Amino acid sequence: MDIPSKYEPQIVEDHWYDYWLDNKYFHSKPDGRKPYTIVIPPPNVTGVLHMGHMLNNTIQDVLIRRARLLGLNACWVPGTDHASIATEAKVVAKLKEQGIDKKDISREEFLGHAWEWTHEYGGVILEQLKKLGCSCDWERTKFTMDDDMSASVIKVFIELFDKGLIYRGYRMVNWDPQAKTTLSDEEVIYEERQGELYYLAYTIEGSDDKVTIATTRPETILGDTAICINPNDDRFRGLKGKKAIVPICNRVIPIIEDEYVSMEFGTGCLKVTPAHDENDKLLGEKHQLETIDIFNEDASLNSFGMHYEGMDRFDARKAIVKELKEKGFLTKVEPYVNKVGTSERTKVVIEPRLSDQWFLKMENLAKPALSAVLETREVKFYPRKFENTYRHWMENIRDWNISRQLWWGQRIPAYYYGDGENDFVVAESIEAALAKAKDKSGNVGLTIEDLKQDEDVLDTWFSSWLWPISVFGGIMEPDNEEVAYYYPTSDLVTAPDILFFWVARMIIAGYEFRGERPFDNVYLTGIVRDKERRKMSKSLGNSPDALELISKFGADAVRVGLLLSSAAGNDLLFDEALCQQGKNFANKIWNAFRLVKGWEIAEIPQPESSIKGIEWYTARFNQALMEIEDHFSKYRISEALMAIYKLVWDDFCSWLLEIVKPAYQQPIDKKSYTEILAIFENNLKLLHPFMPFLTEEIWQRISDRKPSEALVISSWPNSEHFDSKHINAFQFTAEVISGIRNIRKEKNIPLKETLDLSVLNKEGINEDWDVVIKKLANVGQINTVTEAVDGALSFRVRSNEYFIPVSGMLDIEAELKKIREELSYTKGFLESVNKKLANERFVNNAPESVVSMEKKKAADAEAKILTLEKSLSNLE
């Protein structure tokens, strides 16, 4: 089989991926082997591959491929998340392009469009993962809106409701005006923004007196229902029991007293708007204040906005400030930095809003999950530093707002049959709901037409928190064979920013619905950033196209580039140069393969140098294998790759192949060739999880393989005992060879010139390795001498001195000139250091470490002068 001169990843990758799929190497079924299971963090069905996905899924693929090589029943379940908010936004935007407004069509028509969109675009990211080489069990692909997955969500909702853990409440929630839905607290990102503090004067009813308040949101004065002062604030004693008039709308409101008001903030007076602030709402309930909501669901002003009705909240703010100023109510404006909540999904500023929502009680549910990570350590985090974040979230957990005002998602299975607060039932179908409604109401005459299902859907996370269980059917069929075999899963690889959104909730769900952990280990990756430490994003334009990178460098090169600098939990500073480094590595391995396969083989004795080299590399390989396995056990994936990289590039390519390589146009002995191929195959096994395409290509080219002999399903090398004496002997030998090469370079002695080597003090030197020194350094004889040979230059290796006779090989006059110049410089340097040490003020006042450093410089210079003078006398 001809070997191309260049490795062409674009040709190789599609071929081998199709081969793996055709032979079902990625597919898993329960059997007698120990399972190794990973469930993919399901990317949004709207998504396309970005750098975070690339990193996360490369790590998962490394783990799953290594597990496969270890003989475990490796099962990697892929899938996508229906992403209620993001997908609905995409569908609404597409309909808008077609001239269709969501509010003008029925729910069923909208869902038809949503499913159409999902079928058209939903598989894009999974197809892109194949380009990366991800060895998922594609026959198991799940979607959180699959019928069985939705049925699991509904079943769980009903169970939790029946336990009294789910309830409906009228609460202040986080409202996304763009998506027109509520958000959980965890979906709100708080940002410090430069704003302004507006000081507004309210007239006291029945007088010309005024009371001034400070607010960052002047538009909300139209919803004010009180002004509050601190009863201990002597400045406002005269206001007790009085009323104030709200500017613009002229509403008369009471002045109330409450110690909640800070006497230091603003003016010490607080405007109270119960519909638009959580704390104001609590004050309103305590003091029985009216609640006036001034916003529509898109955050435009409603009829309470008077002549600003229909105007966007931020436009209204500018207009209201202008009117307040014109009418004399605005007394001053100050710059003010405050934290503003924004939607994690749409990035718009959220609004606090009173709304009927569904909530899940979390306090007791969280306790087993907290213990599992922090006490029993049934679930281990890598790195452990994230345990503190987890503890903080879990110990301060709030009830989970699980309802969303959307159409795309699992619809809440609550059915209303009357106007009363509790006139509803929860059931898996409208037929079951009718039976429950008749029983609960006592009205046997109720019909299906009398029931109305809740319009809201469940938070997307309410489906994905079941993911490790539901992908194996463990909710609907708790005792089925698959969930019994694959659950708990082995490793979860994800980003820290969804530690609470998803990881914590999965652990909660695992203990609630299966009575055990959902996974053993959680590997938390870093965030991919650019060279300037900015998070990669489309808006910044600093995120490269993932598929373009693969096309340019090859999937293996991109995988290596990503992993070479992605230690667990630490951010990755991505640079395309990393991918080029990965490509260079791939080319190095390919060229090494071409070199080996290009050798002619003969039945000749094995050279002693090859025997020693193979002995050394075998020991070095086993030493490296122990390091690599230790790295894997601690989820130090980047370090594992670097250990393999050095083993292959430095030890195998740069040293071993040079040791065994036959002379020009000479054959290699069959024994060495066979052993080198076996070593090469073991190297490929270590490399395969990181570089699956290149390694399979070379593996299949080494010899004809049956499908059952493919690298992807071969076996990980076994750790064997190694003798460190081979490693130590080679390390010494390599230093000698490097030293000789350096002398050749410094003295311009061509490699083709054979040198004789003299060694002084041979104690501790293993003469067995002389054959390697002779071959790689082109040394003729290695002689033992009792003293330095006259007319020779010397270089030191550890405690031994080797001398290379250079008679006739050097330009003596040029060498003398070079030594004299260096000697003159060193003497001048020593003189300057001695002057400094002769200065009593310096010696007495400088730190001891600085003085010691100067003394060392002097000693080193004196030693160098002696060596140079000795070399000079030998040459003169």
Give a written overview of the molecule.
The structure is a single chain. A hairpin with a 4-residue loop joins strand 5 (166-176) and strand 6 (181-183). The chain is globular, with a radius of gyration of 37 Å. The strands form ten sheets. Strands 7, 8, 9, 10, 11, 12 and 13 form a seven-stranded mixed beta sheet that branches. It folds into six domains: 33-165 and 364-399 and 458-525, Rossmann fold (3-Layer(aba) Sandwich); 181-351, Valyl/Leucyl/Isoleucyl-tRNA synthetase, editing domain (Isoleucyl-tRNA Synthetase, domain 2), CATH 3.90.740.10; 416-453, no CATH class; 546-722, Isoleucyl-tRNA Synthetase, Domain 1 (Orthogonal Bundle); 726-805, hypothetical protein PF0899 fold; 812-875, Orthogonal Bundle (Helix Hairpins), CATH 1.10.287. It is 44% helix and 18% strand. By secondary structure, the protein is of the alpha/beta class.
Brief summary of the model shown:
It is built from 27 helices and 31 strands. The strands form ten sheets. Strands 7, 8, 9, 10, 11, 12 and 13 form a seven-stranded mixed sheet that branches.
Features:
876 residues; 27 helices; Rossmann fold; 31 strands; alpha/beta; Isoleucyl-tRNA Synthetase, domain 2; 7-stranded mixed β-sheet; 4-stranded antiparallel β-sheet
Question: Topology, please?
Answer:
Layout: H1 9-22, E1 35-39, H2 51-69, E2 73-77, E3 79-80, H3 84-97, H4 107-121, H5 124-132, E4 142-143, H6 147-162, E5 166-176, E6 181-183, E7 188-204, E8 210-215, E9 226-229, E10 243-245, E11 252-257, E12 269-272, H7 278-286, H8 313-326, E13 330-343, E14 351-360, H9 363-374, E15 380-382, H10 386-395, E16 400-401, E17 403-404, E18 414-416, E19 424-426, H11 430-441, E20 452-453, E21 457-458, H12 461-464, H13 467-470, H14 481-486, E22 489-494, H15 499-513, E23 519-524, E24 528-529, H16 546-553, H17 555-563, E25 572-573, H18 576-597, E26 601-602, H19 608-633, H20 637-660, E27 668-669, H21 670-687, H22 692-702, H23 724-747, E28 755-760, H24 770-777, E29 779-785, E30 792-797, E31 800-805, H25 812-838, H26 840-845, H27 848-875
